[in-house]
Design brief:
- β1 and β2 form a beta hairpin.
- The protein is mostly beta strands.
- α2 packs across α3.
- The chain has three helices and 14 strands.
């Protein structure tokens, strides 16, 4: 995290409907309720949170602003303090993506409204790279080509000598054509202050990379990885 980067803070709109831990609250600038009140809200499981948002059109925002999809290429994702891109939340069963047959938990996908594109993360990390190399070793691919294939398909995570530490990846999110696959479905986790952690199937979290207005991934859910999800009227 760049210690020299200023963090912009914008006032909220006069009235928005916000989903907090599976309930719908109306919040305004004149409200006397503090953010700490959110922490007393009833806790919900990831599936309950997903179910409460299924079919909703939302704006997702973090410390660097709201998520925006470039209207020209419809692929590049940035953050901005202007109006964010409306996203439709759709639920999917986890067992459809390799979970146990008896696992009825729900995941969410974020579809760009008016398109068939879904917010997508980059696959990265040593564990995934090693598993992929092992799987490829049992195929007809020449062994000498396996490292090149892995390098092309799977990105690396940062090492311990990185300024933020190990486990980060700075490749930005994109919007990819559906239907959603392993890289386009996520679980929602309750976080303090009425915000969410958005977790991939590979145990990484969406991260607001505020100093360059992108959305990347982190190995934990702290301040930069907590998101407001605001339901649109």
């Amino acid at each position: 995290r760049d210690p020299t980067s200023p963090r912009a803070h914008e006032p909220t709109s006069n009235a928005t409907r916000r989903i907090i831990f599976g309930s719908v609250n109306t919040m305004s600038e004149s409200s006397s309720e503090s953010s700490s009140d959110d922490e007393s809200a009833v806790s919900s499981s990831p599936s309950d949170l997903a179910r409460s948002l299924d079919g909703c059109t939302v704006i997702v925002g973090g410390v660097g602003g709201t998520i925006c999809v470039n209207p020209q290429d419809r692929v590049t994702i940035t953050t901005s303090w202007r109006q964010g891109t409306p996203l439709r939340i759709e639920t999917r069963q986890k067992k459809s993506f390799g979970g146990e047959d008896e696992d009825d938990s729900l995941l969410v996908a974020f579809r760009v409204v008016g398109s068939n594109r879904y917010l997508s993360v980059t696959l990265y990390g040593d564990e995934v790279r090693n598993a992929t190399a092992e799987a490829l070793s049992h195929t007809p691919i020449l062994p000498v080509l396996i490292p090149d294939v892995v390098n092309y398909v799977i990105d690396r995570s940062t090492s311990t000598d990185n300024f933020e530490g190990a486990g980060y990846n700075y490749s930005p999110h994109t919007a990819e054509i559906g239907p959603p696959g392993l890289l386009q479905v996520f679980s929602l986790e309750r976080a303090v202050g009425g915000r969410y952690g958005i977790k991939s199937l590979f145990d990484t979290y969406w991260r607001s990379q505020h100093w360059n207005r992108t959305v990347s991934q982190a190995p934990h859910c702290l301040g930069d990885e907590r998101w407001n999800i605001t339901v649109q009227e």
